[in-house]
Amino acid sequence: MRPHCDRAQAAILRAVAAIALPHGARLVIEELRARDWASLTLAGARHELDVRLDGPGAAAALAAVAAQLPHETITIAGQLLAELLVEPGSADDNGVSLTLCALVIND
To answer: pTM for this one?
Structure first.
């Protein structure tokens, strides 16, 4: 079954795929999670996206994603991406896993 994906998650996944593709890596979605978040003046959601980069360039793609993604300008209609972290996970012969943690604020 395909995981449900909202606008913020879709925008982040598109950015990851665009960085990984030139390295020959394929993006595989493992699990998507989101929970509501609020401060005294702002509301939004925290997202955790578990993904894999598969293919011969997976290690190089992971390095590129970790270096570039936190500095990318990711546009999300009606929302602001306030924070984005890349947490590398395990690696095997087929690829590497990573978790993307994002805080998205409603505009």
So the answer is: 0.91
